[in-house]
Amino acid sequence: MSNQRKRPNGEREEDDEEDDAEGIGQWERAYVDDRSWEALQEDESGLLRPIDTSAIYHAQYRRRLRMLSAAAAGTRIQKGLIRYLYIVIDFSRAAAETDFRPSRMAIMAKHVEAFIREFFDQNPLSQIGLVSIKNGIAHTLTDLGGSPESHIQALMGKLEAAGDSSLQNALELVHEHLNQIPSYGHREVLILYSALSTSDPGDIMETIQKCKKSRLRCSVIGLSAEMFICKHLCQETGGLYSVAVDEVHLKDLLLEHAPPPPAIAEFAISNLIKMGFPQRAAEGSMAICSCHKEVKIGAGYTCPRCKARVCELPTECTICGLTLVSSPHLARSYHHLFPIAPFDEVPTLTSANDPRRKLGKSCFGCQQSLLGAGNKPGPCVTCRKCKHYFCLDCDIYIHESLHNCPGCESIHRPKSVSLMEE
Amino acid sequence: MATVASKLYSDDVSLLVLLLDTNPLFWSNRSTTFSQFLSHVLAFLNAVLGLNQLNRVVVIATGYCSCDYIYDSSLTLSGNSESGRTGMPALFGSLLEKLEDFIDKDEELIKEQEHDERIASSLLSGSLSMALCYIQRIFRSGHLHPQPRILCLQGSPDGPEQYVAVMNSIFSAQRLMVPIDSCYIGTQNSAFLQQASYITGGVHHAPKQLDGLFQFLTTIFATDLHTRSFVQLPKPVGVDFRASCFCHKKTIDMGYVCSVCLSIFCEHHKKCSTCGSVFGQSKLDGASTVSDKKRKAPDS
């Protein structure tokens, strides 16, 4: 209710903010801090719905576009696409501080959630694990896995802060986990550290050297102030150290870690990995899975080499050791490999021999008329290869989301390309 | 006025984009003729348009050499009542005319090409991309738009060379939350369509007999998105997750994947043709990853 009273007079809202913060009760304050009404919007029938993620998508497109243009500028970029990342979140006493509103802890959780989704979108075969530090002890929240939902659920269920923080304990735990992974994977640790101290059981320098030896790339994002030990850790292991000044900055810093880092030859050896693309079994079929040794109904995958049943992908077949992945997972990143060339802008010709008059006056993709006001040709773009015309909206959609040129895909390749150019 | 419109749209208005496989190489050796097939489809389209006055239907022909829009119900509704030479109801007169033109043109294009021993696949990637562009335009058109979905009526086998493009389209549809339904009427399985429907949450069905195609179409694919939550639709009988390799465009269920760029190859190469990284010895076969682990275990 309090927001409705404030909303209508927008100018006074700023002045009232502080008075309000004092005057309102504790129960109201939770809502003011949470700003939950901002996460709602009306849909077409006037119902309240949680806000859609279009803003996130837009940011993703921008980042992708930058990557695309970078790929076009340089010849071939090698990226470490198979990443094994542990996110360590410091839930010590310091995480309960409210310099980030409503609290550091809530802000960290919120942005880690966004990060996890973005991470899996950009790094299809990678896996994430979550570790929390509380009462000076590091706990594994989730093991390495490829499902964003399970991580987010585990994270949201554990939101409480207490005790001291221990960097060494966290590193030891993560080191133990990450030592298990195959050598082609990139091992990374991302630490969100809000405490200003670390109370460790032993010599942390030894642990840092150990991480360096195992090629763990450790990055730290601080929430309070710069600390020597964090900086030292990042320098030694080749990670990034940054301290967030506010919430927006924190979000940016986190999302910087989402795109795959340039592959460093010594960090992981490039290799061909033998993989299987198992078929998904029919719904309702019954089989004993090889991973849990239990009878399961439906929804399993069959190893193409030994025909054993496994429950989840990606995994390693327990019978024959073949790495099993779902091929759509791989295909998610292929538009990075085969980017479509930018379309050329068509100069607005008004003469009678405007090529558009011959090729039809509508966008090849969406059939929207390309004629602007007064039957004059409007702005449009053309593909260099197939010479079809597209409207500007389709241009953006094609380059930022579809990654296919409808014109080029509508030509029987490869011989007909030259045929069309005549 | 606005409330009336929103009330109309609060009902389940759908936009059906139908991708019609017109590949002559497929239809020429089938027991069911294309015209029999088409009569089922036209009756189905009529039924969809009849379910709700605001329903819209767009038909895109998927040929062997080209793809094109052949029908848009929002364009033909205004005027244009002459039944034309086809003698069909006015609604589909223009569809048939355009379809005929399209097939003629497509066949000409086929003749221009020398016949290579390729699979006679249709250009599914092209028509899917066009359908998504059209749907994107519907989304742009404002708040009140019909709920779009795509139905692929496909008979030709998959073209492995379209793998990347089809997958791109599928992911784009998934992001737009547009389900891709698929009705596969060919003889083999279509891995593309199975994956498309599975990933986008659409329905995949492969009717055994084409005689009762109309019944399959109306009972399964005419259901709008809201109705689907309380209708028992056919469950997928497994999903074929095979991929195409980049080197020979073969469909494979086991292969080598470059650890840098994730390209798929059907045999071992020394160098990745996509990203250029040089591979070490083929030591990372499935078995050696296990031994790798074992070797490392004592260190930790």
UniProtKB/TrEMBL annotation, chain A:
It is found in: Nucleus. The keyword Hydrolase does not apply. GO terms for molecular function: zinc ion binding. Residues 363-409 form the RING-type domain. Residues 1-25 are annotated as: Disordered. SUPFAM superfamilies: Cysteine-rich domain, vWA-like. A zinc finger (C4-type) spans 303-320. One of its GO terms (cellular component) is transcription factor TFIIH holo complex. Residues 84-272 form the VWFA domain. It holds the Pfam family Ssl1. It comes from the Eukaryota. Keywords: DNA damage, DNA repair, Metal-binding, Nucleus, Transcription, Transcription regulation, Zinc, Zinc-finger. Residues 12-22 have a biased composition (Acidic residues). Belongs to the GTF2H2 family. This is General transcription factor IIH subunit. It comes from Brassica napus (Rape).
TrEMBL record, chain B:
It holds the Pfam family Tfb4. It is found in: Nucleus. One of its GO terms (molecular function) is zinc ion binding. GO terms for biological process: nucleotide-excision repair; regulation of DNA-templated transcription. It comes from the Eukaryota. Keywords: DNA damage, DNA repair, Metal-binding, Nucleus, Transcription, Transcription regulation, Zinc, Zinc-finger. GO terms for cellular component: transcription factor TFIIH core complex; transcription factor TFIIH holo complex. InterPro entries: TFIIH_Tfb4/GTF2H3, vWFA_dom_sf. Belongs to the TFB4 family. PANTHER family: GENERAL TRANSCRIPTION FACTOR IIH SUBUNIT 3, TRANSCRIPTION INITIATION FACTOR IIH TFIIH , POLYPEPTIDE 3-RELATED. Component of the 7-subunit TFIIH core complex composed of XPB, XPD, TFB1/GTF2H1, GTF2H2/P44, TFB4/GTF2H3, TFB2/GTF2H4 and TFB5/GTF2H5, which is active in NER. The core complex associates with the 3-subunit CDK-activating kinase (CAK) module composed of CYCH1/cyclin H1, CDKD and MAT1/At4g30820 to form the 10-subunit holoenzyme (holo-TFIIH) active in transcription. Component of the general transcription and DNA repair factor IIH (TFIIH) core complex, which is involved in general and transcription-coupled nucleotide excision repair (NER) of damaged DNA and, when complexed to CAK, in RNA transcription by RNA polymerase II. In NER, TFIIH acts by opening DNA around the lesion to allow the excision of the damaged oligonucleotide and its replacement by a new DNA fragment. In transcription, TFIIH has an essential role in transcription initiation. This is General transcription and DNA repair factor IIH subunit TFB4. It comes from Brassica campestris.
